[in-house]
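Q: Could you fold this chain for me?
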Amino acid sequence: MHARPTPSHPLENHRALLAWLVALVAAGILTSCPVVLAADPPAILYGTAQHPLTGPRYQTMRSLARYFDTTAKGALEGAVDDARHGASPDASFLFSIRAFARSADDFRRALDEYEAKPFEVPPQVDALAVRARELDERIRDAHTLESTYDEWEGITDVLRRMRSLMAGQDVEVPAAYVSPVLSGPALEQFRQLVHDLEISATRAHSRAKKEASRYERGRQFLGELGYFEAQSRDLHLRADAGDVEPQEIGPIVDHLLEEARQADRRMRDAQTFPEVWDDSGRTITILQRMTTLVRS
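A: Sure. Below is the predicted structure, expressed as structure tokens.
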């Protein structure tokens, strides 16, 4: 005979039912709640205090800023030319384009001084991009200033490239702006000018050392002349070491030219170091000739 199954104890049945209900509720919670994934790490944004622009990324950004400045000036020149030759755009367009070109120039200058005076670049680029888009749309909606359409496309494109670069992507300077490396007589002339620049800067610094104690602000200007001598030496070494690429060397030469002009003006206004004024003027002339070479 088969043994009859032993009846389950009521307490055991209660426990089994409770376990089944718990499992059912847990399954419902798991299926109804979304799966929470680990958050992606925040994207790095360059041009900020946490991640400043440096090295090749900074040099590319300077080249983009120069292209941006040049293209904005081209848009202004085209608008003025249209108005001069019979087009009658709303005066507010010319005012807005002129203000935008001025902002592009201010941005390019600020970026040239970025290493000495860093600032938050992304917000400025974003603001310029918004202004460019709004102004472009206004001009096209009004069917005016058609000769500037290409410039506005170029402005929009270069600002987009700036944003990509700050997001960590590799970008290129627009082809229309990229000049070939210097070669032949142009390269020889540039290297000779860099050589002359270092000699002029070194001579000015040496003369200033001898006369520094005679002037109230002598030490201040002596420091500036020493810094400029070091910058000139670095540029000389760079020009002799390899290819001279205008899109990379150009911003450096522009920056040195601006610094030389400011230092010369400050020394003359303060009546300090007249012994080096000739060398200072010669330095400015050399840098102007170098600028012409890298822009031709």
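A (continued): The chain has a mean pLDDT of 82.
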